[in-house]
């Protein structure tokens, strides 16, 4: 049951929220007035400058002010939860704020140990470079502030002598930029209470899954982990520390946190902010470095606004001021659930239309393209497929449904439930189609599943649509289901299947599921290939004579990958970390060098007998190589059983190309091999 609101529900705050300069209320023990972070008056000046436009470049003005005010008084951040959100978020915060010590704590010692080595517990493109600088520190280095000369890396370490020679001959002067060394400012530990007790800001980034049993079971959010962390914070947080919900939580969770704090610390006041995370798996680092928006919800009091300003000061090191949006805490908590629900709703909407396409002759990619060109609709999240997976969409919709139910809004609950119903139906439709096309029986047949994670570019396998399909397919007793994913280590996939389906289904235990590190082995001799993720590696190249449809690229054609451009010359001779990162990316891509600026320190050595280094290393190398390699469909087709079938659950292969290889293709939202009303 929701409590009666004890905070007035204000409308979304204007910029003023961040620049409120009223004094903090005096608490019995004066915790606010002793809080270093709440005394960051220079920061307030900077924020006022930014809001009034006095600071020409808001980020520059804020950065400069924060340098002088020591990052608004924030010296120490603790992030509780070293998962997919906590790890990358803390890494980017530390990377962009070299003067703040960021400590990530987790109760799971294995996870913490992995974060300290080169074998990170998660795979995210770009994470490694950020982490190596924030966690390991970086060397002093330099470069010229002008685009590279052809064929030259132009880093100062090898250019200084050439410079003087060149200058003496042609008199040309080239600006040199020297970047000082950095000491490590990102740490990982299991010492939860100690780290909390030292922090000016505590981020809560623990898991908030769906409650499995009891009241609200199957719908409500399980806040057990959050409650445990809140208790730790209530006991150990230093007076005046700013507490931040980073986890996705039910609306009004801040009130529960406040309640716990009041019980344990009746004479002190803490501010609880909502700062939901919008990163997506596979693009987490880019999403964090260039966020569409940073939402900060606070209580509508001067102290709440001041706490929001403190957190904003940390983000302002790299996020433009206009993208930091403040609002009341309930709006902020709710907007995270709504954002995910709306994104998922678009997927279910387009998937519902895909079923109509299959029966009418429409092509779902063409429909999506044409409606997406209407700017009121937009072209994102209109990709039809076997439905959404991942750890969040389903649980967040369920949380919204539960909220609506508890508020007596049954029609609202029903509306959002339908998004989940269509999602499950879409997977079932796909599996039925496979079985129907294979003459209604899978007995004696081998099915190859390409893509196991819930989306490309991630090894996150939580709520994998592929696994849901595999479970249904197993009911029809195929001879073998072989699985390949370019981003997942086979042993991890095997462990997951073991945990979620049972030991007995794995081939090593006499079952019929085998996980391969090689796509060709997985597909060899198969009666059908099932594509489950939208991996670029699975795409076919378009036939050379294909003409663009609908005035643009045919939907299946691969967009060329963006090649980074040299970001130099920089406006200022003190470039930001983001600018240096852009340069590093450009040089790494242009010269195929891992550390073109030579700024990385050595990575920490693994403990002796590290199983990743020993046993799995060879597999990892194979996977790394496979990640960028496009599949040779001719080779796969050659080794398929006849008739050759490909069930394209993500519409990544070109029907014409596959047809020329003698393959029958069934795509989502497309008329299949048997024509309208076919199999
Ligand atoms: N995974 C994603 O892409 C996104 C997730 N979110 C939200 O962020 C939150 C975290 O999600 P993930 O990082 O994916 O979860 P995760 O399961 O990967 O990580 C959570 C971590 O919290 C730790 N933890 C749990 N209780 C603890 C305690 N009492 N003390 C210390 N550590 C504790 C766990 O050991 C685990 O390592 C969730 O609320 C999720 O909905 C939000 C945006 C994106
Ligand atoms: O709260 C979260 O956890 C995150 O959930 C999603 O991110 P994520 O689940 O990592 O990945 P998405 O890119 O959103 O994809 C989710 C699923 O939808 C599917 N999808 C996505 C887009 C589309 O057009 N069609 C489609 O079927 C994907 O294949 C995938 O299975 C949101 O995009 C993030 O903003 C949010 O922070």
Q: What does this protein structure show overall?
A:
By secondary structure, the protein is of the alpha/beta class. The protein has two domains: 15-138 and 184-319, 3-Layer(aba) Sandwich (Rossmann fold), CATH 3.40.50.720; 339-541 and 630-667, 3-Layer(aba) Sandwich (Rossmann fold). Helices cover 40% and strands 11% of the residues. It has 23 helices and 16 strands. The strands form four sheets. The chain has a six-stranded parallel sheet with strand order 5-2-1-6-7-8, sandwiched between helices. A six-stranded parallel sheet has the order 13-12-11-14-15-16. Strand 1 (76-80), helix 4 (86-96) and strand 2 form a beta-alpha-beta unit. Helix 13 crosses helix 15. Residues 1-70, 157-164, 543-558 and 617-622 have low confidence and may be disordered. Bound molecules: 1,4-dihydronicotinamide adenine dinucleotide and uridine-5'-diphosphate-glucuronic acid (UGA). 1,4-dihydronicotinamide adenine dinucleotide binds at residues 80-86, 105-108, 111, 192, 205-208, 225, 228-229, 247-248, 277, 279, 281, 391-392. GO terms for molecular function: NAD binding; UDP-glucose 6-dehydrogenase activity. Residues 448-560 form the UDP-glucose/GDP-mannose dehydrogenase C-terminal domain. Substrate binds at residues 336, 381-385, 389, 455.
């Amino acid at each position: 049951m929701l409590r009666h609101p004890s905070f007035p529900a204000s409308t979304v705050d204007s910029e003023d929220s961040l620049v409120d300069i009223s004094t903090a209320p005096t608490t019995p023990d004066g915790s606010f007035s002793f809080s270093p972070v709440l005394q960051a008056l220079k920061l307030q000046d900077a924020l006022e400058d930014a809001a009034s436009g006095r600071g020409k470049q808001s980020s520059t003005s804020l950065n400069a002010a924060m340098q002088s005010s020591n990052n608004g008084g924030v010296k120490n951040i603790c992030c509780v939860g070293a998962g997919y959100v906590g790890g990358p978020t803390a890494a980017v915060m530390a990377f962009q704020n070299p003067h703040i010590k960021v400590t990530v704590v987790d109760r799971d010692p294995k996870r913490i140990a992995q974060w300290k080595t080169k074998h990170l517990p998660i795979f995210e493109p770009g994470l490694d470079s950020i982490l190596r600088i924030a966690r390991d520190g970086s060397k002093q280095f330099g470069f010229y502030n002008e685009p590279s000369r052809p064929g030259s890396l132009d880093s100062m370490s090898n250019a200084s002598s050439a410079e003087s020679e060149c200058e003496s001959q042609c008199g040309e002067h080239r600006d040199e930029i020297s970047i000082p060394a950095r000491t490590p400012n990102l740490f990982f530990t299991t010492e939860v209470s100690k780290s909390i007790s030292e922090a000016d800001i505590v981020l809560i980034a623990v898991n908030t899954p769906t409650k499995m049993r009891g009241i609200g079971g199957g719908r409500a959010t399980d806040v057990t982990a959050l409650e445990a962390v809140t208790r730790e914070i209530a006991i150990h947080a230093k007076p005046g520390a700013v507490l931040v919900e980073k986890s996705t939580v039910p609306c009004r969770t801040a009130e529960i946190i406040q309640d716990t704090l009041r019980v344990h610390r009746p004479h002190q006041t803490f501010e609880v902010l909502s700062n939901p995370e919008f990163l997506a798996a596979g693009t987490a680092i880019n999403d964090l470095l260039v966020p569409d928006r940073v939402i900060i919800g606070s209580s509508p009091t001067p102290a709440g606004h001041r706490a929001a300003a403190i957190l904003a000061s940390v983000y302002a090191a790299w996020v433009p001021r206009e993208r930091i949006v403040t609002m009341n805490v309930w709006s902020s908590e709710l907007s995270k659930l709504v954002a995910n629900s709306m994104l998922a709703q678009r997927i279910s909407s387009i998937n519902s239309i895909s079923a109509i396409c299959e029966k009418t002759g429409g092509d779902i990619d063409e429909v999506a393209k044409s409606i997406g060109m209407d700017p009121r609709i937009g072209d994102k999240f209109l990709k039809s497929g076997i439905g959404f997976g991942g750890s969040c969409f389903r649980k967040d919709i369920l949380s919204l449904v539960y909220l609506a139910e508890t508020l007596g809004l049954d029609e609202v609950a029903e509306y959002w439930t339908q998004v989940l119903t269509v999602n499950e139906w879409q997977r079932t439709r796909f599996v039925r189609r496979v079985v129907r096309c294979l003459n209604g029986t899978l007995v004696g047949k081998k099915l190859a599943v390409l893509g196991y994670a819930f989306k490309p570019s991630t090894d996150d396998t939580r709520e994998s649509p592929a696994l849901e399909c595999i479970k249904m397919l197993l009911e029809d007793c195929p001879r073998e289901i072989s699985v390949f994913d370019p981003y997942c280590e086979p042993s991890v996939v095997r462990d997951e299947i073991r945990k979620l389906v049972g030991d007995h289904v794995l081939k090593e235990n006499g079952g019929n599921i085998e996980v391969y590190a090689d796509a060709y082995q997985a597909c060899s001799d198969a009666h059908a290939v099932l594509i489950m993720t939208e991996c670029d590696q699975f795409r076919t190249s378009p036939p050379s004579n294909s003409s663009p449809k609908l005035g643009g690229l045919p939907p299946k054609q691969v967009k060329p990958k963006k090649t980074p451009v040299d970001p130099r010359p920089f406006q200022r001779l003190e470039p930001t970390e983001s600018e240096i990162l852009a340069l590093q990316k450009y040089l790494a891509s242009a010269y195929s060098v891992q550390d073109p600026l030579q700024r990385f320190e050595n990575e920490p050595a693994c403990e002796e007998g590290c199983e990743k280094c020993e046993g799995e290393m060879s597999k990892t190398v194979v996977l790394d190589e496979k990640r960028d390699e496009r599949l040779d469909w001719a080779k796969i087709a050659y080794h398929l059983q006849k008739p050759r079938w490909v069930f394209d659950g993500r519409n990544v292969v070109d029907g014409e190309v596959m047809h020329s290889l003698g393959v029958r293709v069934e795509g989502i939202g497309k008329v299949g091999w048997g024509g309208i009303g076919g199999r």
